[in-house]
């Protein structure tokens, strides 16, 4: 299935700026609810997980009547720092922990549970909705680097035979705030087109000029406000009025979808720093039939907790997030890509190392 596009502007901006769970859903307890698991845990970190965490927390607390979970945003780096300092019990992060961070934690459990395609979206008259212009990674890099400046440039036209491309100037839109989306997008550009994009992946947009927006909603508003614009954003938030790029991957041009994003992760290799408890990846951006521009957001826990009850609740919550039920709930709420069964088995094995 293709991702459902949802334009979440003001409400989403508030949710991403300060994310908290304030209790469980109202109504009768879920069938089979468990009253034996007791305790309260707190998490913080990546705001990309905002909608998914809402779904996970509500679903988990409906099933575990004496357990409570709270998750605040604040950003990936802040979440990792708070976890190391003992201020929270788990963290969300759009970047894997560095080796020194995992060492400071005294042993980390790190698993990829939020996977979202990053769409390359554009506002070109007559090419919105379900339209997908074809672009290779090289062409995307040249567009965002400012080397390709008009929509009817021969490099774009050659990949889109029969499409009436206007003689319209391209305006690049980037994130004005530091973000994991920017880091993953620029890392993709550098990986597939290092000559055209001479910048390492970074949370801060490296070029001046063009236009920008604050957060996902700001980028989408800026793209939507002017013809000829192009930018990048979480695919689930792209409105139907904008077109999205079908990205060259292997021999194919692949439109953005949850399944195609999950296929990229399945085709990727574990990072050299991965362990039995740290399921972290080095992305394969060239897998045939897979959508190659994705955001992986990790959930991070300690391997050992001083309080056995906290360890038990953290382990149960992580298992719920990784479960088919939890992944389907997050996909319905946030438009993210559910993990595969093969990845789930590896993730659950890592989660089982949590203890006291």
From TrEMBL:
Transmembrane segments: none annotated. InterPro entries: ABC_phos-bd_PstS, PBP_domain, Phosphate-bind_PstS. Pfam families: PBP_like_2 (PF12849). One of its GO terms (cellular component) is ATP-binding cassette (ABC) transporter complex. NCBIfam families: 3a0107s03. Residues 38-325 form the PBP domain. SUPFAM superfamilies: Periplasmic binding protein-like II. The keyword Cell division does not apply. It comes from Actinomyces slackii. GO terms for biological process: phosphate ion transmembrane transport. Keywords: Phosphate transport, Signal, Transport. Belongs to the PstS family. GO terms for molecular function: phosphate ion binding. The keyword Signal applies. This is Phosphate-binding protein. Residues 1-23 form the signal peptide.
């Amino acid at each position: 299935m293709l991702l459902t596009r949802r334009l979440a502007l003001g409400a989403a901006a508030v949710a991403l700026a300060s994310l908290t769970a304030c209790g469980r859903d109202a109504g009768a307890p879920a069938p089979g609810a468990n009253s034996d698991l007791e305790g309260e845990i707190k998490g913080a970190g990546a705001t990309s997980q905002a909608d998914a965490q809402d779904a996970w927390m509500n679903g988990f607390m409906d099933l575990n009547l004496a357990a409570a979970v709270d998750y605040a945003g604040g950003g990936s780096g802040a979440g990792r720092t708070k976890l190391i300092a003992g201020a929270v019990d788990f963290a969300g992060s759009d970047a894997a922990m560095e080796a020194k961070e995992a060492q400071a934690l005294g042993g980390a459990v790190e698993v990829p549970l939020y996977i979202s395609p990053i769409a390359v979206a554009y506002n070109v008259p007559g090419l919105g909705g379900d339209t997908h212009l074809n672009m290779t990674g090289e062409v995307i890099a040249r567009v965002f680097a400012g080397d390709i400046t008009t929509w009817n440039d021969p490099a774009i036209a050659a990949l889109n035979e029969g499409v009436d491309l206007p003689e319209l100037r391209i305006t690049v839109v980037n994130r004005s705030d530091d973000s994991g989306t920017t880091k993953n997008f620029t890392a993709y550009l550098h990986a597939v087109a290092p000559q055209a994009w001479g910048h390492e992946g970074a949370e801060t947009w490296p070029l001046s000029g063009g236009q920008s927006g604050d957060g996902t909603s700001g980028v989408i508003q800026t793209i939507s406000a002017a013809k000829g614009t192009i930018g990048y954003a979480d695919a689930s938030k792209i409105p139907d009025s904008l077109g999205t790029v079908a990205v060259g991957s292997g021999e194919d041009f692949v439109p953005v979808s949850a399944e195609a994003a999950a296929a990229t992760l399945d085709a990727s290799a574990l990072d050299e720093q991965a362990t039995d408890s740290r399921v972290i990846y080095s992305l394969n951006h060239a897998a045939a039939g897979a959508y190659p521009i994705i955001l992986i957001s990790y959930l991070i826990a300690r391997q050992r907790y001083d309080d056995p009850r906290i360890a038990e609740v953290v382990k149960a919550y992580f298992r719920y997030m990784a479960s088919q039920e939890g992944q389907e709930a997050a996909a319905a709420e946030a438009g993210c890509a559910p993990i595969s069964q093969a990845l789930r088995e590896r993730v659950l094995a890592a989660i089982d190392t949590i203890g006291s």
